[in-house]
Amino acid sequence: MKRVFHPEEPELMDQAVLVEGKPTQELQKDLANLRWLNRKFGAVSLLIRFLDHWASTNSSDSPTLRVLDLATGEGDLPRELVAWCRKRNIPVTVDAVDLNEATLAVAIERSRDFHEITFHQGDIRSWGNTTWDIVLCSLALHHFSEGDAVKVLENARKRSRSRVLVADLERTLPGLISIWLLTAILLREPMTVHDARLSIRRAFLFREIGNLAQSAGWKNFHQARFPVSRQAIWMDKVP
Question: Tell me, what CATH number does 70's domain have?
């Protein structure tokens, strides 16, 4: 199944704007749907799996865990990470970056009780001038051309002093069918229907995302598939 990507046809959420200084109800509902999908279809469990693994092998003497989340969306994964840290009394700060101003407005509003998170508007292909203990990027690569996806991966590697996790959809026929059924039966809001169906067709194959990582200079990285139509590449120690 060939990848369908036309830069002149972005996802609707990438085109969202503030109206009279506020995010639209359509965008807020779409982001709520994405949060539900993240909880039900693997993004949250994947994050927690890696946090548990890294905590068991942590050798850092840093008093505070510093995390960078690229393409944070409405900030649901940083909130899950902070909640995980709070339960374990781990001091943490998260810098969460997204390009879209309207999406960030939703993220800030929904994260009012999470003082550990600071939101930034920026281009994840180049944002940042320092390093973090952990760099995360979830469900973002399929928004980019191959060349720009490589830039995202290059920047993620450069921004991490220790660990990197990049997760995304995997382009498969079962995934395509599942998303079409899900958006035909359950998640029927127009923005969610459009973007979900476009996302799976824009996603990279398993071998393609591995090739992108190699082109971005990743060394000694790992790659695996996860439920449901998810894949990830990561480094436990950045060379």
Answer: 3.40.50.150
Paired tokens of 150 = 């490589």
Separation CA 121–CA 99 (nearest Å): 5
SS (H, E, C) the chain: CCCCCCCCCCCHHHHCCCECCECCHHHHHHHHHHHHHHHHCCHHHHHHHHHHHHHHCCCCCCCCEEEEEECCCCCHHHHHHHHHHHHCCCCEEEEEEECCHHHHHHHHHHCCCCCCEEEEECCCCCCCCCCEEEEEEECCHHHCCHHHHHHHHHHHHHHEEEEEEEEEEECCHHHHHHHHHHHHHCCCCHHHHHHHHHHHHHCECHHHHHHHHHHCCCCCCEEEEECCCEEEEEECCCC
Residue 55 lies inside a defined structural domain of this protein: yes
The answer as to whether 218 is a domain residue is yes
Q: Against a cut of 0.85, is the pTM above it?
A: yes
Let me know if residue 185 belongs to a domain: no
> Would you say residue 34 lies in a domain?
no
Q: What is the pLDDT of residues 99-114, one digit of tens each?
A: 999 999 999 999 999 9
